[in-house]
Write a structure and sequence with these properties.
Elements lengths: L1 H22 L23 H8 L10 E14 L4 E7 L6 E9 L13 E6 L1 E4 L4 E4 L11 E6 L19 E7 L4 E6 L4 E7 L2 E5 L14 E3 L4 E6 L3 E9 L10 E3 L1 E7 L2 E6 L5 E5 L10 E11 L1
Amino acid sequence: MKKLLMFLFLILALTSCDSKENNEKPKEDIIEDVKAEKGTLDNPYTISEALNIIGTNEAYSKEIIYIKGIVTGKPYYNTKYSSYSVYLIDENGNKNVQVYSATLDQNLNNATVEEGDIIVAGGHYTYYKSKSQPELAGDTKTNVEYPVIYKITKGSKVIDNNYESFEADDRLTEEVTITFDEATRDEIASMEGKSYFWRKGNFIFENAAGERFEQVDDYLPYRLYVQTIVYLSVKTGTIKYLEFETDQNYPFTGDEQVENGKVDVVSKSLTRIYAAKGATKIRLRNQNDIQNKKQIRVKSIKIVYFK
């Protein structure tokens, strides 16, 4: 009997050891379920994630984050600082973050940034309230370093459906053509200088306060000087496209910096800017040919908008 009890105890002990061996995985088979930290160079935020991080805080962040997105529209390249300003959208083309005045990482050598590229950029973030724009940016006054572009994937898709087009669709549109000699012009004082508004029907054309505008009374045609910013908006509805008739000696070139729009130079005297879907305002800056101080002389603007 005593031998039998010892035999049963031995069997139980062996079974217990075998059970432990089956339940405990060898170290080489253990897979750690640890997610990589988000917002890093190797695991950047998506555009949607970045928007949640940036929020509406106007102060520059102390931390640097990394984001990944598709370049929408033609990037602006600043020859003086060898930097790019681009808008990044998500794969659905619905949301965007601006990467402002970003230099290329030295490992990219002589790479270029073009529309449709997928890039990874890192920098301090802020919310630019006057433009309602979340962005990665810098500030020389407070020693905040400007962003850097670290990775560029070429040959990616270009999301064209983010913009309206010239083609007709089933939505009702109306149009207004403004020439500056017949429009109502208002002048208001501001801290930086003066602002001027031309209004006709549902359309408002406005130059930004403090911009070069010393020849405002000689406004036929309208002179859009280099570095001048203007806003074009509708009071109701959304913009489909704008059509500019310009002096052939002072045309658009397609290098203008545009927010909420995409430039299409049809000819030397005709240019269209197709609005981003749902846009009520387009911001246009004459940024081209700074060395030669090239201006754009606009004879008239036609706006086509959805009611």
